[in-house]
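2024-03-11 09:14:02 DEBUG pipeline.ingest accepted 1 chain
2024-03-11 09:14:02 DEBUG pipeline.ingest length=373
2024-03-11 09:14:03 DEBUG pipeline.predict start
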Amino acid sequence: MNNRERTSAVLHYQKYDRLPIVHFGYWGETLEKWVAQGHLTREEITGLWDGSKKDQELAIKLGFDFNWQTMFYTNGGLNPGFEHKVIREFPDGSRHVLDGDGVITLQCPDAGSIPSEIDHLLKDRASWEEHYKNRYKWSEARVDMAAMANLKKEKRENPLGLHCGSLFGHIRNVLGVEGASYLYVDDEPLFREIVDIVGDICYRNVEFVFRSGGKDVGFDFAHFWEDICFKNGPLISPTVFSEYVGPHYKRITDLVRANGIDIVSLDCDGWIDALIPIWFENGVNTMFPIEVGTWDASIAPWRSRYGKKLRGVGGMNKTAFAHDRAAVDAEIERLKPLVALGGYIPCPDHRIAPDAEWDNVRYYCDRMHSVFG
């Protein structure tokens, strides 16, 4: 079996020869650390991105089979985005920068975390009409046809996802959490208009992919990105999410299933439990990356509630990589009964962080192959 066949077998509760060993990429600082330690060369990490040839070469070097975040992307956001512009500079080297979403962020020298948001261009109907509405028009240019043509020629052994976009996470980025929350109350018609326009763009992108020969690519799964939860739960009311965003999920997941894709995964960080029923009812059946976090997320209670129709990729506590082999062994022992449930593929629960030790990651891959091979 190749990795496509193994992955499909696991997620469809069929027999397989061994469990695929999956990862979700690395922080840039992690790669820099491994270069400094002599495990990698500068050449090996230059131009490395999810699913690239260099990403696959690094996966093989560590012992992983593939990166789940290997996707064909469509553009469901601003087109064009805003030009990046420095708004203000400070004596300590920090800067206020306008980013591609029209968000002003505080960027500090050598900071590796997400920049703090200072302000947002999109605030109300006037700013929507002036700066944003024209950037949310659909066109065929939102789908890279040349890239899709190349995919049709490839003979792949690893799974490839069709990225269907973001139905609220992108909107959260543009408005900010506070901005999105206030807009729903202050101007509900505009809130609905933005959600509907973004949802329609994502739908039309996917529709155009299939209309233009997407079936010939042989996508293994469909995928959405959101990141709309934090350690205490969702950043949007589940009731609001269900009413406004849920129907767009249903429309798109019905479309991908009509075109032969029955695995639909969803990337959302944080404590996602309150939103799972909405995604599940609207056609999403695979949760990723199942962050263990401080709330001990696991597929086990979800399986008890939703049954075998709910799959998962993720849920491996990556903090074990910062400790020792004993911690790695203990984490693999914890994963054994979860793998036994079926329909589940362990994966480090987000990008591998800078505290990860190279030898621990190598050891994890070796042990996973041994235990689940």
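2024-03-11 09:14:41 DEBUG pipeline.report The chain has a mean pLDDT of 97.
2024-03-11 09:14:41 DEBUG pipeline.predict end
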